[in-house]
Specification:
Length: about 220
């Protein structure tokens, strides 16, 4: 496969942005399971990347009539049929992973809500919904490792830290998305938005270090 045939796909999936995605799920996993979440969270992190790619594909398919000419569907370097097949495959991957690794019901519920929010965002461009997509991505990472009730006491724990982190992510990305609405008019603003997006990597690393340094997972009895 030549570089000329790969390049449209790299653009279609905005590969540069994908590196900011798995850290969301890993932060959620560590918030629930402690340091072991870095390993146990690999599967939900992979699922989160596939879901994000589904969102990117759906976004370009829905916006083909209004997107700028450099987008691969607009300039014809990628066919609509190929894009729709890719979108379907990206949606299938997290479902296969969830079934293959027997991820718990809370993860399935969270992922279905996340997919719904992605679809709605792509058609409304709501800043809050974009924020919710990334906040739910964090929550899904923790939901994949959410502990079942204690078999003796039947104690149900509530992941307070996971909820707080999900809200922080939602607010941060909603704010960045709102700010980015001006990026098409200002090249300087485009660079600032890029820095803010990649600021997620710093946010993820900071959260992972702080949570991992604590003696136990951050979930408490209701």
């Amino acid at each position: 496969m030549s570089m000329s045939s790969i390049r449209p796909w790299l653009s279609f999936f905005r590969v540069g942005n994908l590196i900011t995605v798995p850290g969301d799920a890993l932060v959620g996993a560590v918030a629930v399971a402690g340091i072991s979440g870095l390993v146990d969270g690999v599967v939900p992190a992979l699922a989160s990347v596939a879901i994000y790619m589904f969102g990117l594909a759906d976004n370009d398919i829905v916006g083909v009539a209004s997107d700028p000419s450099e987008r691969p569907l607009v300039n014809g370097t990628l066919s609509m049929r190929a894009a729709k097949v890719a979108r379907g495959l990206c949606l299938l991957v997290p479902l296969v992973l969830g079934a293959a690794f027997s991820l718990p019901p809370l993860w399935w519920i969270t992922v279905l809500i996340l997919i719904d929010e992605i679809v709605v965002y792509n058609r409304t461009k709501s800043c809050l919904r974009m924020g919710l997509c990334r906040g739910l991505n964090v929550f899904a990472g923790g939901a994949a490792l959410y502990p079942r009730p204690d078999p003796v006491s039947l104690t149900i724990t509530f992941p307070y830290a996971l909820m707080v982190l999900s809200v922080i992510w939602t607010a941060y990305i909603a704010g960045v998305t709102k700010y980015s609405e001006r990026e098409v008019f200002d090249s300087t603003n485009q660079r600032k938005v890029a820095l803010l997006v990649y600021g997620l990597l710093i946010l993820q690393l900071t959260a992972l270090i702080l949570i991992s340094a604590l003696p136990s997972p951050l979930h408490l009895p209701l």
